[in-house]
Amino acid sequence: MSPNALIPSHRKPRRSASSRALRAGVTGGFLTLAVTGATVPANAAEKPVSETQEMPTITAALATSAAKSADAAQQAAFNYERQALQDATEAKADETAGKAKAAAEKKAKAEAEAKKAAEEARQEKEAAQARASRSETRSALSAVSDSGSSSSSSSQATGSAASLVSFLKSQLGKAYVLGSSGPSSYDCSGLTQAAFSQIGIDLPRVSQSQSTAGTQVGLGNLQVGDILYWGSAGSAYHVAVYVGNGNFIGAQNPSTGIVERPLSYDMPTGAVRVL
Fold this sequence. Notes:
Elements: E1 17-27, E2 30-40, H1 49-52, H2 60-157, H3 159-170, E3 175-176, E4 185-186, H4 188-197, H5 207-210, E5 215-217, E6 227-230, E7 238-244, E8 247-253, E9 257-262, E10 270-273
Parallel strand pairs: 3-4
Antiparallel strand pairs: 1-2, 5-10, 6-7, 6-10, 7-8, 8-9
Helix pairs in contact: 3-4
């Protein structure tokens, strides 16, 4: 017998232990781990961990898919943010355009109202001037009529004026011919020149010169023998002779010839006195 046969072993008996196995897998793209356990005899030999753990295999395709998913999410977020910014910019532009349009319409309306007011003011001014002109014309006609009545007797008393009027009346009914100075036809300045030549006064041939041949007089202070003119002094386009009683004699036009008419028929612009 061995001397050590009765010496108890210093080793403690092995207790039964659970052997756990770590298992892993991929479910829906997520890594899952499972631990399973089994009771084995204490004296059973423990296997290396490498023999009991199963690790998932992450393939290149899975990594690529995950990367693509992340890129897609990032791109979607970027697109959303860009669209939101674009919508905000368009909304602001529409608001600005609306304000600009409203301002332009308001300005156009104000300009139209101002233009209308200015036009109304202009028309009112012209109407007032026309009323004033008509009033002055009536006053002038009234004054001429009065002066004509008072000077009719003096025309008979003054030999030169009487001779002038007599000659003019003898020409009534004759034809108007432009450029003619008698004796069978006249134009306006040809008639006045011929009439004044009867009393020894030599007048210029044309209306423009006759309108400045004497002293300018007002239409309210006419005397028999005054030369009436139409147009401005120095550029008159028609002349005749005042014969008293508010009338004048002149070669009017080819339709009427030489006629006697009241001043109201065609109010002259001014008059000159050569007698």
